[in-house]
Design goal:
Elements (H helix, E strand, L loop, with lengths): L4 E4 L2 H8 L4 E5 L7 E5 L4 H9 L7 H21 L1
Antiparallel strand pairs: 1-3, 2-3
Amino acid sequence: MNSDLYITSDLSLASLLSLSYVLDHIDQTNPRRAVFVFRRDEGIDQLVEAFWSDQARVSPRIYFAQIKYLKSRLYEERGQA
């Protein structure tokens, strides 16, 4: 496993992370579960911890827009497969 990367299949978490960190790619090898792959930059682990402990704060409109954006990326990439 590459410790330079952070992976998650949680769309909510990926949406939050993608507001601050570069989404390296979306692995859709398994057609039933997409995996969002981020570079493990400084602070990403703290943001993940803040997400799971309900301490992360973000504008609801920006967060919702980011979820819609990631969903569109998912469908776009599935169409290219």
